[in-house]
Amino acid sequence: MGNFKKAAMWTGIVVTALCGVVLLGGGKVVSGTLLIATAFIMVRPIRRLKLPLWVRIGLLCAVFGLVALNISTTDLPVSSNGMVVACGNEAADGFTPTGIKFWDQVTWIFSSFLAQAAPS
């Protein structure tokens, strides 16, 4: 059980940091920075300040809640209603609206990240 616990903990830390990198690349600087800082804090816990488990879980939920709140403020592009529009934003190429607003905002941020990460 100890190995499973360690593997789950490190998987959570890596996924949190990768989500922070994607948010930074997608233009959500505050959320990305918050998630990366959270990942560093999760890696190197402060030994002097030993908080109870429920407080640590509550703080992680608060951080992820703030990130979700910040993602929900993302402005989506206006649909072109079938018209061909020339735009300089490469993120619009990989974005297809689904009708679920939060999911559309997440995919828009991810498309923005992929557009910036793509080789020129």
Automatic annotation (TrEMBL):
<feature type="transmembrane region" description="Helical">
    <location>
        <begin position="12"/>
        <end position="41"/>
    </location>
</feature>
<keyword id="KW-0812">Transmembrane</keyword>
<keyword id="KW-1133">Transmembrane helix</keyword>
<protein>
    <submittedName>
        <fullName>Uncharacterized protein</fullName>
    </submittedName>
</protein>
<feature type="transmembrane region" description="Helical">
    <location>
        <begin position="53"/>
        <end position="71"/>
    </location>
</feature>
<keyword id="KW-0472">Membrane</keyword>
